[in-house]
Amino acid sequence: MRRYEAFSMALEALRVNRMRSLLTMLGVIIGVLSVVILVSIGTGAKNAVESEIAGLGSNIILVVPGRLTTGAAPTQSRLNLQDVAHVRRVVGDPAKVTVSLQSGETVRVGRTEQFATIVGTDENLPNIFERPLERGRYLSETDVDTRRRVTVLGAEVADKLFGDIDPIGRQVSISGARFRVVGVYATVGATFGVARDAEVHMPVTTAQRLLGISRINGMAVGASGPDEIEPLQGRVLAALQERHPGDQFSAVTQTQLLGTIGSILGMLTGVLAAIAGISLLVGGVGVSNIMLVSVRERTREIGLRKALGARQRDILLQFLIEAVLLTTIGGTIGIALGVGGSLLIQALTPVPAAITWWSIALAFGVSVAVGVFFGVAPARRAGRLDPVIALRAE
Amino acid sequence: MIEAVDLTRSYQLEGVSVEALRGVNLTIGPGEFAAIVGPSGSGKSTLMHLLGCLDRPTSGSLRIDGVEVAGLNDTQMAELRNRTIGFVFQSFHLLARTSALENVALPLVYRGISRNERIKRAKAALEAVGLAHRLDHRPSQMSGGEQQRVAIARALVGEPAVLLADEPTGNLDTRNGAEVMRILDGLDCTRIVVTHEPEVAAHAVRQIHVRDGLIELDTAT
Question: How far apart are the CA of B27 and the nearest CA of chain A, in angstroms?
Answer without folding.
Answer: 23
